[in-house]
Amino acid sequence: MLTEKVRIAVLVSGGGTNLQALLDEERAGNLPDGEIVLVLSNRPDAYALERARKAGVEAVCVDRAQYPDPAAREGEMRRVLREKGVELVVLAGYLSILSEAFTAEYAGRMINIHPSLIPSFCGKGFYGLKVHEAALSYGVKVTGATVHYVNEIPDGGQIILQKAVGVREGDTPERLQKRVMRQAEWKILPRACEIVCKKLRGEEK
Ligand code: GRF
């Protein structure tokens, strides 16, 4: 007998194109073992919140302005996640480092998408366009994206999926970022999410 689908929260800070990819794949039936039940932002102006509402998913903001103390902020996040019965946390462009206690609580149940082939161009300070600027200035010919479990080391957890993307002559960080998103991130994040949901669901049985 099949147990309930894994309840997923997606944590965001910005535009939410990765969130959109997850919502689209869920709607297309490609996330059969999971269900996105919550979108949690640390910024009230994140367009991702709008995407969640449009898809009929509960959207909550736990704001730095409202909770300036990081421990209090994480406490509120925990409360919201528990209230919603969340079993898997997906970081999709969530631009805030989570505490060791928080990552430990969700060990094996929290994943992140990073826009490079880890272990290149990752860790503290490598986020957004900075990742692609670094890849271009190093001169790599291939970059890509990685989905990995989250642990206490930024971008340091076990790798779940990676996809390579070619660098082209004349690429700017912006162009490379778009290609990495289109060719890699939006593809591997939903797939990795399903892999982890299937695994967690299997463990429940
Ligand atoms: C993506 O490049 C993701 O890999 C990184 O932050 C960006 C978020 O973009 N962690 P979006 O909000 O999903 O459009």
Topology:
Blueprint: E1 6-12, H1 17-27, E2 34-41, H2 47-54, E3 58-61, H3 70-83, E4 88-91, H4 100-105, E5 110-114, H5 129-138, E6 142-149, E7 159-166, H6 173-204
Parallel strand pairs: 1-2, 1-4, 2-3, 4-5
Antiparallel strand pairs: 5-6, 6-7
Helix pairs in contact: 1-6, 5-6
Bound molecules: 5-O-phosphono-beta-D-ribofuranosylamine.
5-O-phosphono-beta-D-ribofuranosylamine is lined by residues 12, 14-19, 48, 92-93, 113-115, 128, 181, 185.
Describe, in short, the structure shown:
The protein has 205 residues and is α/β, with parallel strands linked by helices. 40% of the residues lie in helices and 21% in strands.
What would your notes on this structure say?
This protein has a single domain (6-204), classed as Rossmann fold (3-Layer(aba) Sandwich), CATH 3.40.50.170. Helix content is 40%, strand content 21%. The chain has six helices and seven strands; from the N terminus they run E-H-E-H-E-H-E-H-E-H-E-E-H. The chain has helices at 17-27, 47-54, 70-83, 100-105, 129-138, 173-204; strands at 6-12, 34-41, 58-61, 88-91, 110-114, 142-149, 159-166. It has a seven-stranded mixed beta sheet with strand order 3-2-1-4-5-6-7, sandwiched between helices.
> Could you say which structural class the secondary elements and strand pairing correspond to?
alpha/beta
Q: Please give the CATH class.
A: Alpha Beta
Quick one: CATH superfamily? Formyl transferase, N-terminal domain
The end-to-end span amounts to 8 Å
What is the spatial order of strands in the main beta sheet? 3-2-1-4-5-6-7
Domain count: 1
CATH architecture: 3-Layer(aba) Sandwich
Q: What characterizes the major β-sheet?
A: 7 strands, mixed
Percent strand equals: 15-25%
- In the CATH hierarchy, the third-tier topology is known as Rossmann fold
Bound molecule kinds, no repeats: 5-O-phosphono-beta-D-ribofuranosylamine
**Chain-averaged pLDDT:** 96
Number of strands: 7
Cα-based radius of gyration, to the nearest Å: 16 Å
List the secondary-structure elements in sequence, H or E: EHEHEHEHEHEEH
Runs with pLDDT <50, length 5+? Answer: none
Overall morphology? globular
H/I helix tally: 6
